[in-house]
Specification:
2 copies of one chain form a homodimer. In chain A, 48% of the residues lie in helices and 6% in strands. Chain A has 209 residues and is α+β, with helices and mostly antiparallel strands. Chain A has a 4-stranded mixed beta sheet with strand order 2-1-3-4. In chain A, helix 1 runs parallel beside helix 3 (66-76).
Chain lengths: 209, 209
């Protein structure tokens, strides 16, 4: 098993945090996106989507989506469970994973990739040229506020996103909140639950991964 | 367990197909979105995200995301397995679910919701007003072509999206291809694998669900 990784971007970071919470070490190869290594033949032969993270299994199968990578790790290394401890907790975790991805991660990604010059013609990750849409960046900024409000409401009376246990929903949500910092979006003072939770999960050793 | 459903839109359809493949019957309540029933108190008390499908569990927990609903059904009714039959097939199914969602479903949703007058100020599902961005609709149309190309390439030499077995990846991909018809996007003649596969999965009795 080999993980293609890079420090900095949010998508590989959540996989590293997940592995740190599991206490699992995997052989890791750094792919320097800033130097365009993901567009070179050596990497596209492994992942023609040209995205990081990618997990190459011993069979040669390559997983290119963080969600699939983390579910695979969960199944191989079940302890501690990060996708829920019973059928109902798993359901709530899965539900929040989609909300965090669609309302949180996508909003921040839209805000960033449709504005800064570095992503010109690469407004969506992958191998295709996709032009930036400035109005989408603005809309993303507004949606980040909605996401902060919703997550704050969810955290009312709860230690973690889905209840008493730290799960992959907390990992993904923390990474989104930190990712929003790249477009200078801070959690507003009114979102007290979110601020309390973010401070706490950021203290975990895994957050530095 | 109670499913809030509506014939027509793609998101509830994939849950119905999934249930049909499992042979599972669930008490179903129709929420007539076209008449605004999802904005009325009776429904927002159940799902304040105002989206369909929603699955209300006997405990009162409500799942609002199709992905979480189908994973819950899979765990309660494991046969036939639709999320893969072993750890590696599950990984590949999970990987393709994210690709189908991000590259396929989101592209079609962007194309539709940012163009037709019916979705004015509701360019994203949910309770918030979100304005349409016509350029995003155009970009979505282009991304549908990319998705068709990628799915066609994946289906080369394969009976189903992830190999020999029909899975939830086939359900979601079929629903996306049919959804694209709403913006008059047909699979091009050059995508022979995709046309062959789509004709075959559309013949399954579940496709009518």
């Amino acid at each position: 098993m080999k993980l293609y990784d890079l420090a900095g971007p949010p998508s590989p970071r959540r996989v590293r945090i997940f592995l740190a919470e599991k206490g699992v070490d995997i052989e890791t190869v750094t792919v320097n996106i800033r130097e365009g290594e993901h567009h070179k033949d050596e990497f596209t032969a492994i992942n023609n989507r040209r995205t990081i993270p990618a997990l190459e299994l011993d069979s040669g199968v390559v997983l290119t989506e963080g969600d699939a990578i983390m579910r695979y790790i969960e199944e191989r290394y079940p302890e501690p469970p990060l996708f829920g401890r019973d059928i109902e907790e798993r359901a709530v975790v899965n539900n929040w994973l989609r909300i965090i991805e669609n309302d949180g991660f996508m909003a921040v990604a839209e805000a960033i990739r449709n504005s800064i010059p570095y992503f010109e013609n690469r407004a969506i990750t992958g191998s295709r040229d996709v032009e930036q849409i400035p109005a989408l960046s603005e809309r993303g900024m507004k949606r980040i506020d909605f996401f902060f409000e919703d997550l704050d409401a969810q955290l009312e009376g709860k230690k973690y996103v889905t209840g008493d246990n730290f799960t992959v929903a907390d990992i993904n949500a923390m990474v989104v909140v930190d990712f929003a910092g790249m477009v200078k979006k801070e959690v507003p003072e009114t979102c007290k639950n979110l601020l309390r939770w973010h401070a706490e999960v950021s203290e975990r050793p895994s957050a530095k991964a």
